[in-house]
Amino acid sequence: MTELVHTRAELAVARAARTGTVGVVMTMGALHEGHESLLRAARERADHVLVTIFVNPLQFGPTEDFDRYPRTLDADLEVCRRAGVDLVFAPAVPDMYPGGAPQVRVNPGPLGEDLEGLSRPGFFHGVLTVVLKLLQLTRPDLAFFGEKDYQQLTLIRRMCRDLDVPVEVVGVPTVREPDGLALSSRNRYLSAVDRQVALGLSGALRAGAEAAEAGRDAGAVLAAAHAAFGAGGSGARLDYLVLTDPDLEPGPVQGPARLLVAAWVGDTRLIDNAPVTLHPTS
Ligand code: PAF
């Protein structure tokens, strides 16, 4: 049975009744197969799976899609029931922020100002602040996040390490449609034409990964990814397409690396990423 609670007082009672390993999957709802793979990963490792559903106003800019972000609680609960989730915490904004918008927020540091942070100022302050609050409220042993939001996952890991948050952060690989499109709650904004254009993102990552497998160097890998994006995603407006160290640290890239892309398809901003391995050039 899946128990649903809305307030932090209800959550405290429900959480106290769970002994054994607790795994949390934090979401903004509109659950899809990508979330289902997080739930499966949590089920495999934890005695109890706790899901949070909260569209966090702190991580949306003034011109972003907070108002139109899909809110589908009944369908989400059905997904949770099917996946054997024990407990769902779906607070309203005043339950999460009883004192109003918090004045004290988690500072993500320099990485929070790069990539997504450049286009979405304050985004990672909002994400890390709500994630830290939800970790305090749910007190999990394990917390599962998708690799699809790779910079978010990296920053959450970093926050837990830097601030001694006692939780194991587990990254779960991205789930894709058969044609390569990464699953995202925002895909539901895409028209049929937009959806075709959106394939430019995964196409660019695939081309980069293939170039890396063929033993090409970092410059050639990135060039191959850009060429493929130009060919396949020509209706999209590229924000960034970069090759970085797997921890998103600045500096030269060699061995295991990450290709990350962000682009606008119509009014919808999409992100994607993939691991690549750069072989040493002889
Ligand atoms: O990835 C998301 O859905 C959100 O950023 C998160 C982690 C639930 C915080 O609001």
TrEMBL record:
It is found in: Cytoplasm. It catalyses: (R)-pantoate + beta-alanine + ATP = (R)-pantothenate + AMP + diphosphate + H(+). ATP binds at residues 28-35, 146-149, 175, 183-186. Its main location: cytoplasm. It comes from the Bacteria. (R)-pantoate binds at Q59, Q152. Beta-alanine binds at Q59. GO terms for biological process: pantothenate biosynthetic process. Pfam families: Pantoate_ligase. The reaction proceeds by a bi uni uni bi ping pong mechanism. Catalyzes the condensation of pantoate with beta-alanine in an ATP-dependent reaction via a pantoyl-adenylate intermediate. HAMAP family: PanC. This is Pantothenate synthetase. It comes from Micromonospora zingiberis. The gene is panC.
